[in-house]
Amino acid sequence: GSSWIKCDFEINLCKALPEFNLQPGWIRRSGQSGMGAPYSDHNGNESAYFLSLSSEMQSSSAALRTNVFLPTDEEHTCQYFGVQFHYWVSQMSATLMVGLQKHSEDTVTKIWQVSGKLWNQWNVNNITINST
């Protein structure tokens, strides 16, 4: 069976993104915040919330870290899990990267990246991870 963790930021951050994993620069806002585009979420809802980098962070970088994903049971230590996310890139020079950090390692392995295209519109991506 698959268990989905849906994170829409409507009430707060979700179980996958605890408050202490939100680095400086990220803010939870809606399209009505007066901060510029995007003016709605990916469904076109102007009052819906999403995470955004504050304008002061344009020359720097910031990360979002999820909770640790653990094997569902001891017999099947190998598992697949999927991540779907919607993203908006407003600067041609910006890069969005998804990385994976194994529990026993310090380094983050890049598994997906986009930069300099599809900007100023909502895009969606799905990543499936086969983890041991």
Automatic annotation (TrEMBL):
InterPro entries registered for this protein in UniProt: ConA-like_dom_sf, MAM_dom
Q: Which GO terms describe its cellular component?
A: membrane
Identify the PROSITE patterns for this entry: MAM_2
The MAM domain extends over: 5-132
Q: Which residues form a coiled coil?
A: none
Domain of life according to the entry: Eukaryota
* SUPFAM superfamilies the record matches: Concanavalin A-like lectins/glucanases (SSF49899)
Q: What is the name of the protein in this document? A: MALR1 protein
Tell me what organism the protein belongs to: Pomatostomus ruficeps (Chestnut-crowned babbler)
Q: Which gene encodes it?
A: Malrd1_1
